[in-house]
């Protein structure tokens, strides 16, 4: 056909004779106008702006991080709570998020921290790095106050910046090739740290659980204690009493069953007693009240709930010398290596507060604080 028979306009996408105009990812658009005297005028439309691709390294992402579903539970709950309050500012919200405290820290404790802080500005009172395991006086005070007649020594105690941090350090100690069991429901740090370390399979959205984790159902029907007779063997058992979030405290008989179960299977119990101070009946506050527990259990605890230290950050973990790996090596020695590698010790100011907390005046004030936090 002749040129005068061309359509009024031709686009680059529908005209073969215009050919490939560019080797890059942006496509230019043309229009060809034809006048009666056969003069052609080509107009090129401006290409839409495209952002330059971000630079990427050649380091692969940890595949275990990709297994995690959404964000960590408590920040996500807080995000949703704030969004709801922004939309409904007068709403009365009952938060089931992080277990924060509500009452001020007793003055006998804050005074000790203030005094230690002021001392750091003097030559006589200054101190730098301390022992990674914690100050000797505080370790001794924890041992005598909470484990006085249970055979736990101050050398078994590792002072830390909180039980949550120690849970991740313990997971690092165990490594990727262990199987774990958790109460269902339970504190999310046990599962999430296991996922990150590579202990689990993928997340199954149909049942909302990760593969390769034994979820021990705890509900009103079984008294919030798992049926151990039908629970498969795992290497590590995470057990929290009083439980977060149900608040159920295991009885002496139930914990005796748990210790016997662990001993039978050669498992290690990680016993979280962060809420132990709130126990008002004769239920054990420590797993070491159960005979044989020192051979199968690690206990982690915290000043967060005891003394309102959620922002101050101070806790401890007990690893008895009697606890051994399958090859006979001391679990405490390996945990000490983890601590020395990953941690420079708890703040000396926080430790001063912890020591004051365990003084006679501090124990009295803290007991009242626990009562208030229970009531509110």
Summarize the structure in words:
- The protein is an alpha/beta fold and 376 residues long.
- The protein folds into 2 domains: 70-99, no CATH class; 107-374, 3-Layer(aba) Sandwich (Aspartate Aminotransferase, domain 2), CATH 3.40.640.10.
- It has 10 helices and 11 strands.
- The strands form 3 sheets. It has a 7-stranded mixed sheet with strand order 3-11-10-9-8-4-7, with helices on both faces. Strands 1-2 form a two-stranded antiparallel sheet. Strands 5-6 form a two-stranded antiparallel ribbon.
- β1 and β2 (40-45) form a beta hairpin.
In short:
The chain has two domains: 70-99, no CATH class; 107-374, 3-Layer(aba) Sandwich (Aspartate Aminotransferase, domain 2). The protein is 32% helix and 13% strand.
Please give the structural blueprint.
Layout lengths: L28 E6 L5 E6 L27 H15 L19 H13 L16 H12 L9 E4 L2 H12 L5 E5 L3 H10 L5 E2 L4 E2 L2 E5 L18 E5 L11 H14 L2 E5 L24 E6 H5 L7 E4 L12 H12 L5 H10 L2 H16 L1
Parallel strand pairs: 4-7, 4-8, 8-9, 9-10
Antiparallel strand pairs: 1-2, 3-11, 5-6, 10-11
Helix pairs in contact: 2-9, 4-5, 4-8
Keywords: Aminotransferase, Pyridoxal phosphate, Transferase
Protein name: Aminotransferase class I/classII large domain-containing protein
Cofactor: pyridoxal 5'-phosphate
């Amino acid at each position: 056909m002749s040129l005068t028979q061309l359509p009024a306009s031709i686009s680059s996408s529908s005209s073969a004779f215009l050919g490939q105009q560019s080797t890059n990812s942006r496509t230019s658009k043309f229009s060809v106008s034809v006048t009666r005297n056969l003069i052609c005028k080509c107009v090129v439309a401006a290409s839409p702006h495209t952002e330059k691709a971000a630079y990427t390294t050649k380091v692969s992402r940890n595949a275990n991080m990709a297994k995690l579903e959404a964000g960590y539970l408590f920040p996500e709950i807080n995000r949703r709570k704030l969004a709801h309050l922004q939309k409904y500012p007068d709403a009365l919200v009952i938060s089931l998020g992080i277990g924060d405290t509500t009452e001020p820290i007793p003055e006998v404790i804050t005074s000790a921290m203030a005094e230690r802080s002021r001392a750091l500005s003097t030559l006589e009172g200054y101190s730098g790095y301390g022992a990674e395991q914690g100050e000797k006086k505080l370790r001794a005070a924890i041992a005598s106050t909470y484990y006085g007649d249970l055979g736990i020594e101050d050398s078994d105690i590792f002072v830390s910046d909180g039980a949550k941090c120690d849970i991740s350090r313990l997971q690092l100690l165990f490594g990727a090739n262990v199987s774990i069991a958790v109460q269902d429901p339970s504190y999310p740090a046990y599962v999430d740290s296991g996922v990150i370390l590579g202990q689990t399979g993928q997340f199954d959205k149909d049942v909302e659980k990760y593969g390769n984790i034994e979820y021990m159902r705890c509900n009103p029907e079984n008294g919030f204690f798992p049926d151990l007779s039908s629970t498969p063997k795992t290497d590590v058992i995470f057990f929290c009493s009083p439980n977060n979030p149900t608040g159920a405290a295991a009885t002496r008989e139930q914990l005796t069953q748990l210790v016997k179960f662990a001993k039978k299977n050669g498992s290690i119990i990680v016993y979280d007693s962060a809420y132990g101070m709130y126990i008002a009946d004769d239920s054990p506050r420590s797993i070491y009240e159960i005979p044989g527990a020192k051979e199968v259990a690690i206990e982690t605890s915290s000043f967060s709930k005891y003394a309102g230290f959620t922002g101050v950050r101070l806790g401890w973990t007990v690893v008895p010398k009697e606890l051994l790996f399958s090859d006979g090596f001391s679990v405490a020695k390996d945990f000490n290596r983890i601590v020395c590698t990953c941690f420079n010790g708890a703040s000396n100011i926080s430790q001063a507060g912890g020591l004051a907390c365990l003084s006679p005046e501090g124990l009295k004030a803290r007991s009242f604080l626990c009562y208030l936090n229970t009531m509110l």
